[in-house]
Specification:
This protein is mostly helical. The chain has one domain. 77% of the residues lie in helices and 0% in strands. The protein contains eight helices and no strands. The longest helix is centred in the middle third of the chain and has 35 residues. The radius of gyration is 17 Å and the shape is globular. The termini are far apart.
């Protein structure tokens, strides 16, 4: 049990770092000040879980009861802010390309982890028989922080227009919800998370996008 908890914490920590970094980079590129960078970074990392908790009536949300992930997100944001402040070349050229590639992998892992964690939280709260609800809560845990980030940054949410991001979370959540009562729960959880990760990485690698009503020439 301790090993499972340690692994789950590690995976969630990786996702928190990736999401906090993505939020901070959006703020940095928007030339927001330090407070703006902190707010966007931390919100991206823990916003999805906060929305999930509010929906199921778990108030105050878990991030206020056990702020370990808030602290981790804050430290990540500050380190990234200082790095960019001390080395302006970091946000351009090959350094940025390498950073984005690494963060994309972490982001995929985090999205998979947060999606299944969101479902687990809903099940533990007594909503295991409501499959539509737990799938929705899994997805909102995974993508909610990014949606809040983009709204605060004044741009169209990334999940609505690029690389089937939310679709990957939906697919993994549906698989986990469908398998959890038929096979070992840990295996179902891993299968759901792995599905999210694989779809995300493939979508990025091959530039998969859903069609739009207006064709781009």
């Amino acid at each position: 049990m301790k090993i499972e908890l340690s692994l789950l914490f590690f995976v969630e920590a990786v996702g928190t770092i990736a999401f906090a970094s993505s939020g901070a980079m959006v703020a940095i590129k928007k030339q927001l000040d330090l407070l703006g960078v902190i707010v966007l970074g931390v919100t991206t990392a823990v916003g999805g879980g906060m929305l999930r908790d509010i929906i199921i009536g778990n108030v105050p949300p878990a991030l206020f009861k056990d702020p370990i992930y808030v602290l981790l997100a804050f430290i990540t944001v500050m380190l990234l802010f200082i790095t960019v402040r001390m080395n302006q070349k970091f946000i351009s050229g090959r350094h940025m390309e390498t950073f984005e590639k690494v963060m994309n992998i972490f982001d995929a892992i985090g999205l998979g982890a947060f999606t299944v964690v969101g479902i687990d939280t809903a099940v533990l709260a007594g909503y295991g028989d409501y499959h539509f609800l737990i799938v929705f809560l899994g997805v909102i845990t995974g993508v909610g922080g990014g949606i809040l980030r983009d709204i605060m940054a004044g741009q169209t949410p990334y999940v609505l227009k690029k690389h089937i991001y939310a679709c990957a979370s939906i697919a993994g959540a549906m698989l986990y919800a469908g398998l959890m009562n038929h096979i070992n729960e840990d295996i179902a959880m891993l299968a759901g998370a792995a599905t999210v990760i694989v779809i995300r990485l493939l979508a990025t690698r091959f530039c998969w996008n859903l069609p739009t009503a207006v064709k781009n020439n």
